[in-house]
C-alpha cells in the first residue's frame, strides 16, 4: 500500500512463511452441500489440486493451496451412489487479498536508507494491516509518520469471480519538501487481475494511480534539494556518469500512472508477453514511458526469443528503443541421451540487437558448464557492432564463474567501442561456530551448518560446488524457513575408509536461523566379518559392538556382520541375550595392505 523503502531499525511483522502451504497466499473458500458422505475434488487447469471426503450436509474448504495469479476452479462432489455435482468457482487475486479470517500486519520503526547522498536519513514509523473478510473481501490500511511527513491509507480488495480481482485504496499525505514548502494531497490507486485460462491469457496486473497536485511520497521529502541527479557515490566520488533517467525535480509532482502486464500462451511451446507503464506529472506535458514486449518459443530443445523495449524519460529528448533476437541451441540436440561428452552441458547462441539510432550488434557465442559438479561456468561471445553514434568494430566478452565450497570467484574480459575491460571478483561467507570456523559460498538469511567430522571432501547433494572441508564441515548457504529441509551427503564421494550411519538429515529452521545437521561418520576399515562360536555361526540378530562402533551392528545369516570405522586389529563384543552364556568376544587382526581395500572380509572365532 506504500512504496517499499530500505531502513535501519526494528520491525515486528507477521510472516506468512510460518503458515502451512495450504494457508499461504490467497485462495477462495469453497462452500458446498453433500447429500451423503461424499468425495470432493477440485481441479485447476486440468490438474487435480485438492481431494477430501466430507460428511453429509454443508461443508467448507479453506485450506486450498494458492496457485499463481488465479484461475477457475472446477469442484466435483461425488456421492456414494455415483452421482456427481459439478460447479465452477472463478477466482483471481491481487497482492493485497487475504484469505477469510487471516490477518497480516507489519510495524516498522527506524531510519530511512537509500544509498543516495542526495537523500537524508530521517527517522520514521510505518504500520500496515490487512484482514480477510467473508465473500472474498479484504480490508486494509496503514500509516507513515515522520517529522516532515504524514500519510494514512485505507483500501479494500475483492475477488469478483468471473470478473477477476480488484483492489482500490486512497492515501492522504501531508509533506514538507526541502524548500520548506508544505503540501497536502491524495493518491487513489486501482489494481486489477484476471486469468482467462481457457484461452491462455493472464492479465497479471493492470493498475492506475491518480495523485492530486499536492501529493508527495515519503521518499520525496528525504531529498536535500528540490532537483538534481540520483547518482551513486563512494567516498565522495561519483562512480557513474549522471543520466537523464537519474534526474528528479520535486517541482513536478506525479499525477497519473497506468501500468499493465499481460501474457498469452500460444500453443504448447510459445508465450507472448507485454508490460508497460505511463507516468505523467503536474505542471508539464512530459511523461515517463516504458514498454517491454516479446515472444518466447521453443522447437524441440531449441529456444528463441524476439523482444522489444522502449524507454522514455520525461526530462530526456528522444527515446531509447531496442529490438533483439536471441537463439540458443544445446549441443545435446545432436548427442545421444546417454552421451558422457563434455559438450552435453554446452550450448551455442546467437543474438542480434538493433536500436532506432541505426546501431546494430551481432554476437555468436558458446556457453556451458564444466567439472564434475558443473560448478565452473563459462561464456564466450564475439561479434561485430556498427552504425549509429558509436564506433564500428569487433565486440565480445569472455567470462568464467566458479562456485566452490569455500566461496565463489569470477573473471572476465570484454571489448567494445574501442574500450577493453578486465574484471574479477571473489565472494563468500565465514561462519564461526562452536567447532571452529567454516568458509562457504555467500550466505543468505537462513543457513545450515553440516557437521560430519571425519567425512572430508564429501559432496552435498543438490548443491553446486558445496563439499565438506578437510574437517568434515560445510555450509548450506540457504534454507527454507519453517519447512523441512532435506540435507543429504553423496555417499558415492565418501572415502573408502569412511562410512555414515545415515546419509540424510532433516532440519526445520526458523527465519534467520543457523541450524546444524549432524552426521555421524565412522573412519576406519570396513569389515564383513563371519563370527563363529563352538564351530557354529553366532545367533542371527545378535548385536556386535566395538570401541569404535558403539552404535552396534546386527548379525545376519551365517554369522555375518558388517562393521565400519574399524582399526586394523581389535576386538568385538557379541551379545544375543542377558544370560552369562549369551555373549562372547572375538579378536581379529588384518595385514597392513588391507587398508588399500574398500571392504575386507575375514572370519573370527568368538570366545
Provide the descriptors you would attach to this structure in a database record.
transport; Immunoglobulin-like; single chain; cell outer membrane; four-stranded antiparallel sheet; PapC-like_C; transmembrane beta strand; 607 residues; mainly beta; Fimbrial_membr_usher_CS; 19-stranded antiparallel sheet
Summarize the structure.
Among the domains are: 62 residues, Immunoglobulin-like; 94 residues, Outer membrane usher protein FimD, plug domain (Immunoglobulin-like), CATH 2.60.40; 82 residues, PapC, C-terminal domain (Immunoglobulin-like, Sandwich), CATH 2.60.40.2070.
What does this structure look like?
The structure is a single chain. The chain has 607 residues and is an all-beta fold. Among the domains are: 62 residues, Immunoglobulin-like (Sandwich); 94 residues, Sandwich (Immunoglobulin-like); 82 residues, Immunoglobulin-like (Sandwich), CATH 2.60.40.2070. Helix content is 0%, strand content 57%. The chain is built from no helices and 46 strands. Strand 11 and strand 12 form a beta hairpin. The chain is globular and about 105 Å long. The termini are far apart. About 2% of the residues have low confidence.
Amino acid at each position: 500500500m506504500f512504496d517499499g523503502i530500505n531502513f535501519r531499525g526494528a520491525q515486528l511483522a507477521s510472516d506468512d512463511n510460518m503458515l502451512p502451504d495450504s494457508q499461504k497466499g490467497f485462495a477462495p473458500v469453497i462452500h458446498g452441500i453433500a447429500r451423503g458422505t461424499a468425495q470432493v475434488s477440485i481441479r485447476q487447469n486440468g490438474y487435480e489440486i485438492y481431494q477430501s471426503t466430507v460428511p453429509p450436509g454443508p461443508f467448507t474448504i479453506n485450506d486450498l493451496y494458492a496457485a499463481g495469479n488465479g484461475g477457475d476452479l472446477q469442484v466435483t462432489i461425488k456421492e456414494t451412489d455415483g452421482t456427481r455435482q459439478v460447479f465452477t468457482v472463478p477466482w483471481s487475486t491481487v497482492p493485497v487479498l487475504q484469505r477469510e479470517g487471516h490477518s497480516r500486519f507489519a510495524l516498522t520503526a527506524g531510519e530511512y536508507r537509500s544509498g543516495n547522498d542526495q537523500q537524508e536519513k530521517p527517522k520514521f514509523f510505518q504500520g500496515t494491516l490487512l484482514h480477510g473478510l467473508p465473500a472474498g473481501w479484504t480490508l486494509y490500511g496503514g500509516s507513515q509518520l515522520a517529522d516532515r511527513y504524514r500519510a494514512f491509507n485505507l483500501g479494500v480488495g475483492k475477488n469478483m469471480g468471473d470478473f477477476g480481482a480488484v483492489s482500490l485504496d486512497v492515501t492522504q499525505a501531508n509533506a514538507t519538501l526541502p524548500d520548506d514548502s508544505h503540501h497536502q494531497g491524495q493518491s487513489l490507486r486501482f489494481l486489477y487481475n484476471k486469468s482467462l485460462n481457457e484461452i491462455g491469457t493472464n492479465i497479471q496486473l493492470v493498475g492506475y494511480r491518480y495523485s492530486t497536485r499536492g501529493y508527495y511520497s515519503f521518499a520525496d521529502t528525504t531529498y536535500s534539494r528540490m532537483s538534481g541527479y540520483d547518482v551513486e557515490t563512494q567516498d565522495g566520488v561519483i562512480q557513474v556518469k549522471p543520466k537523464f533517467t537519474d534526474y528528479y525535480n520535486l517541482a513536478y509532482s506525479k499525477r497519473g500512472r497506468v501500468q499493465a502486464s499481460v501474457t498469452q500462451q500460444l500453443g504448447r511451446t510459445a508465450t507472448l508477453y507485454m508490460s508497460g507503464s505511463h507516468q505523467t506529472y503536474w505542471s508539464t506535458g512530459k511523461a515517463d514511458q516504458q514498454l517491454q514486449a516479446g515472444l518466447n518459443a521453443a522447437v524441440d530443445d531449441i529456444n528463441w526469443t524476439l523482444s522489444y523495449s522502449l524507454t522514455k524519460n520525461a526530462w530526456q529528448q528522444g527515446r531509447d528503443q531496442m529490438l533483439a533476437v536471441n537463439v540458443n541451441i544445446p549441443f545435446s540436440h545432436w548427442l545421444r541421451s546417454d552421451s558422457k561428452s563434455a559438450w552435453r552441458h554446452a550450448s551455442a547462441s546467437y543474438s542480434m540487437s538493433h536500436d532506432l539510432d541505426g546501431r546494430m550488434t551481432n554476437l555468436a557465442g558458446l556457453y556451458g558448464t564444466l567439472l564434475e559438479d558443473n560448478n565452473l561456468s563459462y561464456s564466450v561471445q564475439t561479434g561485430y557492432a556498427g552504425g549509429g553514434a558509436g564506433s564500428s568494430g569487433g565486440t565480445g566478452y569472455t567470462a568464467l564463474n566458479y562456485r566452490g565450497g569455500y566461496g565463489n570467484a569470477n573473471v572476465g574480459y570484454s571489448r567494445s567501442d574501442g574500450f577493453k575491460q578486465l574484471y574479477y571478483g571473489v565472494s563468500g561467507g565465514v561462519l564461526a561456530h562452536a567447532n571452529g570456523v567454516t568458509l562457504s559460498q555467500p550466505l543468505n538469511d537462513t543457513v545450515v551448518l553440516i557437521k560430519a567430522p571425519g567425512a572430508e571432501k564429501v559432496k552435498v547433494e543438490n548443491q553446486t560446488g558445496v563439499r565438506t572441508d578437510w574437517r568434515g564441515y560445510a555450509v548450506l548457504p540457504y534454507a527454507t524457513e519453517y519447512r523441512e529441509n532435506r540435507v543429504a551427503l553423496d555417499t558415492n564421494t565418501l572415502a573408502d575408509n569412511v562410512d555414515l550411519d545415515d546419509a540424510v538429515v532433516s532440519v526445520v529452521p526458523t527465519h534467520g536461523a543457523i541450524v546444524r545437521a549432524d552426521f555421524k561418520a565412522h573412519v576406519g576399515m570396513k569389515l564383513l566379518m563371519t563370527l563363529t562360536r563352538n564351530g557354529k555361526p553366532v545367533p542371527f540378530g545378535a548385536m556386535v559392538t566395538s570401541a569404535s562402533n558403539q552404535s552396534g551392528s546386527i548379525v545376519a545369516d551365517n554369522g555375518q556382520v558388517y562393521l565400519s570405522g574399524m582399526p586394523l586389529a581389535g576386538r568385538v563384543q557379541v551379545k544375543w541375550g542377558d544370560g552369562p552364556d549369551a555373549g562372547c568376544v572375538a579378536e581379529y587382526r588384518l595385514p597392513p595392505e588391507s587398508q588399500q581395500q574398500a571392504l575386507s572380509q575375514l572370519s573370527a572365532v568368538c570366545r
